[in-house]
Amino acid sequence: MNPEPAKEYESSLRENLPVTRARSLFSRQMGIQRLTTLTILLLAAASFCIPAQAAQAKETYLGDMVTLSGYSYGSDTVYLFLTGPNLPVNGVALDNINRPTEQGGFTAVDVNSDGSWSYKWYTGQTGGKLDAGTYAVWVVDRPVGRSNLGTTDYSTIAVNLQQPGISVGSPTVPGGLTVNSTPAGANLFLNGKYEGTTPVTVPNLDPGTYVATLSRSGFLNQSNQVEIQAGALTTLSVPLLSANGTLWVTTVPIGGSISIDGTDAGIAPVLLTNLIPGNHTLIASLPGVSPVQETVRVIGGATIPVSITVTKENLTFEHQASPTNPVLFAGVLPSGIFACVIVVFLLGCRKWQT
After folding, report:
1. CATH top-level class of 245-310
2. Per-residue pLDDT reduced to its tens digit, 291-313
């Protein structure tokens, strides 16, 4: 046999020549009156074809419809039969698994003028019950079973039928959250959603992580991360921090009079509370001492210590010690010298009187 015509035919197929032209060319040169070439294609979609020999098994569920299709050149009809789990070895009809191929158990499908064929297999309407597993759909050019395929052209399509099932997730048991604040009356926002004012209990929460934010006038907003457990009530207690600040004021020496922003605040040491955050002016004063002024910054929710020191440089002029002022001068002498001066003075006065 001259191999050249066959090679020319195969070349024509690779160059996408029409099948009818390639077939007639091969028939003319080989003297063959009829060419039977059967190529089975499994279509994943209408727009493309995959050769059945190289395709993976079609995955579907029992009861679904499976579209089988392909091409048969030179045969007007293809015959389908089925083999697989718990079925006769020689095969059965796709639409009636109780009819074996020995008794004509084939599904005949007409071939279209372009050589294509297609068949919709309803796996839930087979005349019996199919088991889950991988099946082979045999496509042949004449009605013969598996044991008589030696003189026929055939191909197979693998179909994996899976058992359908219903999955049920584990039921979710909700949890709850109780929130307390000091002082009470704070607004609670859970993941941004308003849930009421403290003390408050929020039920039916899905397990997970939440952000609890408390807001109350005069206090700083506070956010806390809390974990909600399934079937459990979680408690969150939050001491609120004042939105205003506090100053702890002392003087050196102690006992200075304190004023803040022009308002008398008492004698140091003194605790100044509920101050608006920002800059404030403190003035400390002592008798005979020039007032000392300082600017301090108040931070909301914080207590800031402030110490004001008064030194000799703060003494006023009219109260400075001088030898010409016997009262102040005496006040600065040691006690022993001061006593001697008094004795001499009294003796002198007594002698003058005698």
Report:
1. mainly beta
2. 999 999 998 888 999 999 877 55
